[in-house]
## 1
Amino acid sequence: MKPSLYVAALLSVIGTSVGAQSLKLREMFASDRAKVAEEAKEASDACGTPIAFQVDYTTYAGAMDDVNNQPPWAYAANVSDALKRVCSSDEGRASVRTGIRSVTVSHGSAESMVLKNGVFSYTVPYSGHSPSTVVRWLQENL
C-alpha cells in the first residue's frame, strides 16, 4: 500500500470512531475534560504531588443512557474525593506521594480498583459508585 493511501485509510478509521459518536456525546466529553482537570488539580493539591487523571471515554459510549444521569467526570470525582480524604493525614499523604502518579477511570460492569506501577485504575458501573469504597480500598492497599 502506498504511504499516502495508508495515511488516508488510517485517518478514515480514526475519523469513523469519532464521527460515530453523537454530537451530544462529543460535547459532553469535551466539557467533561475540563472538569476532570479540576478534579486532578484538587487531588494533587491535597496530596502535595502531581496526579494525572484520565477518563477512558471509549468505555462511556452509553453515558447518555446512565440511569443516574452522571457524566463520566463524576466518576473521576469519586477518586478525587477519596484521595483528598486519604491525604488528610500525613501518613496517607506520604503513601499517595510514593504510590500513585496517575488515575485512569473507565466504565465497566462492576466496580474494581487496581494499583500497578503508580497507576490507579478505577472501573465503575453506571450505578452503585461511591467515594467511600475507593477510600477503603486505598487505605487497605497503599
Note: The chain has one domain: 23-140.
## 2
Amino acid sequence: MWALRRASPALVTAAAAKLHSDRRGRRELSAPSRCESLQAAAQLILRDSVQYAELNGLLYGLKDPGADQSAATQTPVAMLPFCIPEKAFQDCVALSPLWNKLVDAVARDVKWLHATLETVAKADPFTGRLLKISKQIHEEGLRQPLMLGIHRSDYMLHSGAEPRCLQVELNTIASSMGCHAFHVEKLHRFVLGRFQEGAVGRAIRGHYGDLKGDDLTKRLPRNVTLEAIPAALSRAQAVYKAQTKGAKDPVVLFVVNDDGRNFADWCFLEYALWEVHNVRVLKKSLKEVAEKASMDKEGRLWLEEEEVAVSYFRAGYGPEDYPSEVEWSARLLLERSAAVKCPSVDYQLVGAKKVQQALARPGAVERFLGPDSAKLRGCFAGLWGLGPGEDDQAIVKLACEKPEGFVLKPQREGGGHNFYGKDVAVKLKELSPQERSAYILMQRILPGLQESVMTRQGQLKVMECLSEFGFYSVYLGDGRTAHLSAHAGHLVRTKAQGVDEGGVAAGYAVISSPFLTS
C-alpha cells in the first residue's frame, strides 16, 4: 500500500480561481504575488505530477517503524527544475575525469594516505577501524588491484561578482540518489512539456523569466545515471571474468542496509544490470555476508554457491552500519577477497573530510595530478585542518568570533553531522585539541536563492530555496590501465532557506534537476 496524499477537488478549484484572478487583473506581479501565482499553478498540476512520479519509480520507503515493510511514499522532489548557468554546469561535468584520476592516485599512494589520516584515526574510531583494515590488506598483499569507483562531487554555486561552483565534498562510497535523479529529469520533461501553454504555462514561464517561444524542455540536460552506473558495474564484472580462470557467470553483490528505505534507487540499478547487461545481482547486508560468504584458497569470494565478481557498497559508510564485530568481519572478508570492490577501503578513505582538506594544501593536488591540478583548485573552498600538528589557533579564533562564515565537519557521510552558525563556536570550545583532529573547518558557501516548488508525501510548498549540484563519475582501473573513466550523470538537491544540511535520505532536501540558463 502506498502512502499518498492527494490534492482535494476544493483545493484545485481554489487554485484555478486564484491563478485566473492573478492573470486577469495585472501586468506586473510583485514578488509575493509571483509566489502565490506559482503556488496556484503548482497546485493545479500536483495530482498529475505526483502520479507521474510514483508510476515512474520515484518511491521511498516509509520511515514509520510501525508501517508495513512494503509501504512506500513519493520520493521528495521539486516540481520544477532549479536554474544554473550552463557554463558552470559544463565546467563541473568537465572535472569528472580529473576527480577520477585524483581518487585513484591518492588511493594507490598508501603511504601518503595513511600518514594523512593517522591523527584523525586516533580521535575518530570509525576512521581508525577503516585505516586498520587498509593496513592489514596491504601488509598481506593486495589480491585485487582492480578498483571500481562510483563517485559524486557535490558543489554549490557561490554568489558573487562572478558566481562559480565551489566543492562541498567528494563522495566515494554509496553515492546514492542517481536513479531518483534520472527519473526526476523525466518528471520535469513531462511537466515542462505538458504544461507549457495556458495559465499554468504562463506561470511557469514567468518563474523562469518568461522565455517566450522557447521549448523549456531543451534547457534540461540529459541525465545518464541509469545508463552509466550499471554499465560501469557490468564492465567491472566483465574485466574480473576475463582475468579469473574458470569464472563463468559471477554475480555483482549489492551490500545494503536492513531498513531498505532507498530500495528504488538500487533496484533500478539491479534491473538495468539484468535487462541491459545480463548480469545478476545478489543483495545482502553485512551481517548476511558474514554468515553466508566465504573465500577459497585463491581468494575468490563465494556467496550462496555464487562467485562474486564485484562488491558494490550501498551501506558501510558510517559507524551505524557496523553495530558489532560481525559486520566488521564481513568488511574485512570482502576487502581481502579477489572480488572488485566499489569502493575499496582505500577509495573510501580518500573520501574522508581530512583528505579533502589535506589536498587543498599547497602542492598536494599537484603531487598527484601535475598540470591538471589548477582546474580542480578553481573549485576548492577554504579548508582548514584542526588538532595537533595543525597551525589552527588563528582560524579557530576567527571561527569562534564569526561562526556564520564556517562549517565544522566530522569524517562522516549521510547528512546530519555538520555544525553551522553559533553551533560551530560552541562545538569548537567543547573539543579538546586531540578531539578536534576528527574535524575540519570549511568556508561557508553562500549560494543564491530561488523560488522552488517542493513536494513531499503529496503536499507542496513554494519556498525560497538553494541547491547542491552533484556530478557522478565512474572509474575502473588497476593502477596501470584505466579501463573506464567517464562522467556519469548529475543530481540536484534542493532545500529551503535556513536549512543547513542537504541530505534527501536524512529528510532535509528534495531532489530536483538543473535548468540551464545562458
Note: The radius of gyration is 24 Å.
## 3
Amino acid sequence: MHAKKMGKNNNRTVARNGKVMNSEVNALPPQKSVFLAYVLWLFGGIFGLHHLYLHRDRHAFLWWCSLGGYFGIGWLGEIFTIPSYVRDANEDPRFIEEFIKKLQTHKKPPYSGKRFLFMIMIGYLFGQLANMAIPNDMYMAMDFNFLHWLIPFFVALGVWTVGNIGRERGVLWHCLLAAFAAYPIRYFIYDETYTILITSLAAALVFDHASKEWLRTPPKRRGICERFFKFSTAMFIYFSLWGCFFYFNGTITDENGNEVPIHEAFQNFLASAWWTDIKQALKDMYTYAQHHGWYEIWKELLESMDVDGERNAYKVLGLSATASQTEITATYRKLCKTIHPDTVKDESQRATAQQRFIEVQQAYEILSKIKSARIRKNKKVVNDDNENDTIVL
C-alpha cells in the first residue's frame, strides 16, 4: 500500500505553503541543439528562423520586419550569441546560475547600448511605416490626417517589443505616455522624419529608465497553435501597413511618363475591358464546371497551356491540327530541303537558318511521338473491345 501511494505521488511536490504542486511544471523544456540553431541562422536567420526554433518569437518577428536587424547587421552580430540563446531556451543550469548572479548584482537590467539603439531603430521603423501607410491625399472625400496620431502608438509598440525580448520585460503604457508626450513636437519641427526619431528616442529613454525590469520567471511555454496565431497576426498587421502604403501613396509610370497613383490605376484596371472579359470567363468556367465537372476544366486548361507542345509544333510546320502523319512527314522533308543551313550562303543568316532547322526537327519529333502514342492507344482500345465482345460457346 505504501509503495502504491508513493507511485501515485511521485509527480507531486509540496510547496512551502503546504499546497501540493505538480513537478512537471519544473521539468526542463525540450532541449534545443546549438548546431541546428546555427544551421537555421545561416540559411534562414535573416528572417528569424533560428529565433522561432528557440521560441524567441518577438525576436523572430523583428528580424522579419527589419531583414535580419536592419539588412543583416544584427544577424551577423548573433554569430557569437547563439550558444547563449540556446542555453536560455534549454534553461541550462549554467545559464540559470549566471542569470541568478545578475539578479543579485543588479536590481534592474543594466544599460545595454545595443538593445537601446535597437529600440530606437524599431520604434522609428514602425512609426515611419505607419506614417507612410496614411493616405497623403483625400480618398473617397475623406481626409485621413487625423490618423497621424496613431504614429506614437506604433513607435511605442516597437520600443516595447524590443524591450521585452529575452529575460527582460516592461509595461507598454510608459512608452505610450512618452511617445504621445513627445509627438506634438511635430508642430515645431515640420520634418516628420525628425519628429518620429525624437518620439522613438523619448519612448526608449522612458522604457529604459522607468519600465525595464527582470523577467524573473521562466518564459511561458506556449503551444504551436497559439504561437502561430500570434505571429501570423503580427505579420498580417505589418504587411497590411506596407499594403496601405503602396495602395494609397504608391505610383506607377504610364507610357507617357506620367505618374499615376496605384489606387487609381487599380480602379481603372477593374473598369477595363480586359478585366471584364476575365471576370466573365471565370463566371463561364464556374458555370461549365457545375454541369461537366472540374476535371473537364482541368483537361481544357492543360490543352490551352499546350504542355506537350503539339499546338506550337503544328504552327512551326505550318499545318492544321487535322493534318495526318503522311502530311506531317511530307511537309517536314520539304522544309528540310528548303531551310537546311548548308543551302544558305550568307554567313550572317546561317545561324538563323540553323535555329529554324532545329525548330522544324523538334516539331516533327513531337508530332510523330504524339501520333504514334495515339495510334497505340487506339489499337489497345480496339483489342480490348474485341476481347469483351468475344462469345464463348
Note: Confidence is low (pLDDT under 50) at residues 1-24.
